[in-house]
Write a structure and sequence with these properties.
- With 292 residues, the protein is α/β, with parallel strands linked by helices.
- The protein folds into two domains: 3-211, P-loop containing nucleotide triphosphate hydrolases (Rossmann fold), CATH 3.40.50; 217-281.
- Helices cover 29% and strands 32% of the residues.
- Helix 3 (106-115) runs antiparallel to helix 4 and helix 4 (129-142) runs parallel beside helix 5.
- The longest helix is centred in the middle third of the chain and has 18 residues, at 159-176.
- The protein is elongated, with a radius of gyration of 21 Å.
Length: 292
Amino acid sequence: MNTVLQAQGLGKKYGRRWALTDCDLEVPAGHVVGLVGPNGAGKSTLLNLAVGMLSPSAGTVEVLGAPAGSQQAKVGYVAQDTPTYARLSIADHLRLGRRLNPAWDESLAQQRIQHLKLDPKQRAGKLSGGQRAQLALTLGLAKRPDLLILDEPVAALDPLARREFLQDLMEAVAEQELSVVLSSHLVSDVERACDYVIVLVDSRVQVNGEIDTLLATHYRLTGPRRDPKDMPRDQFVVTASHTDRQSTYLIRTDQPIHDPAWTVTQLTLEDLVLAYMGRDVQPERPVLEVQR
């Protein structure tokens, strides 16, 4: 299967307010995908629709080739607040996971708990935020999913706990060959853990593709002031700024830049993401998808 998550015209309405509208998206299999965007962009709503916790108000969403919500046994999910049952012990959580998931890997679950040096008798309510997040990740991984969806799983963690969580995630991906969708507002987390990125702004995908390819096809051009209409047709202008004498463009192009008037610099992932987050959403433009 080439696509693990596909949305077409997807929308979700709460009362009179649309939290997600006209969302078209394809998430390729075999990647750790970073879903980034500003607060209110619709990231959590999209992921809740994908796991079947919400029903669409418009459009469709499929997961692993079937309607969302029909593949629970094959999808692992860690919600934004890494929910656990405060009164249940760690051992209780593992027993619950074993009863609810037909492909449950008890050996994996026990090995992770031992590796994390957690006491199986300890109640979840007594764990630190990082330990609760690790317990939730253990439950998601031990069900042996084909797709693991993580909604801001480290947002409330301190830097050390966040690093440990992401390191454990990357090791699990390597061992289990998982497809992962990880939403985050921290570009540094996406840069550390992901090889594919999707930028979502006002529920619309602004750009998506493999991170290495995106960085190799985006440039900052600085030089004498130039009108956007005079830019070559093979250079898609993402953002532009001007002074009286100088222009600065962030462009996407697959072609070499030969114009000696420009000073050309490469972008960081943060540069790229912030540029797409800051530009006006223009639904009539095609989604920019970069593939090898």
